[in-house]
Amino acid sequence: MSPATKRSAGAALLGTLRPALAALVLAALPGAALAQEMPVFRIEMKDGTISPTRIEAPANTPFKFEISNTGQAPVEFESLELKREKVLAPGATSSIVFRRVEPGEYDFFDDFHPEARAKLVVR
Questions:
Q1: Residue 11: per-residue pLDDT
Q2: Percentage with pLDDT > 90 across the chain
Q3: Cα–Cα distance between 76 and 20 in angstroms, integer?
Q4: C-alpha radius of gyration, the chain, whole number
């Protein structure tokens, strides 16, 4: 195949694929918009305390915990039922995304300060 024929075939293929690529990009946009609308619950962990101590979240819907350690010591977000944990240094902020949680009540705590406890209620 000559270089001119290759270029012509490549252009034809690109012309055929262009509408499909555009459809894929447009299909992805609503998902991106939904990701921005995901409920965000802010949690402050500070030297043996968690605030708030109760969070209500929607069942079977993605949501995010934004966890901040505003204390002087490290903390560890821990939930055995949710199978999630995250260690944060003093002054650090991090997030945990939950894709789908069944209705129920789920305990979480600071594993470095076990007296610091809170509850996630999913309805």
A1: 62
A2: 70
A3: 46
A4: 23
Q: What is the C-alpha separation between 58 and 51, in angstroms, rounded?
A: 19
User: How many angstroms separate the CA atoms of 100 and 51, rounded?
Assistant: 23
Q: Are 123 and 103 in contact (CB under 8 A)?
A: yes
Level-2 CATH architecture, domain 40-122: Sandwich (2.60)
Q: If you average pLDDT over every residue of the chain, what do you get? A: 86
Residue 18: both structure tokens together: 């262009």
User: Which residues are bridge partners to 78 per DSSP?
Assistant: 85, 109
Q: Distance between CA 21 and CA 65 in Å, rounded? A: 34
State how far the Cα of 54 lies from the Cα of 64, in Å rounded to an integer: 15
Residue 86 host element (H or E): strand 84-88
For the whole model, what pTM was predicted?
0.71
The domains of the chain are located at: 1-37, 40-122
Residue 123 to residue 104: CA distance in whole angstroms: 7
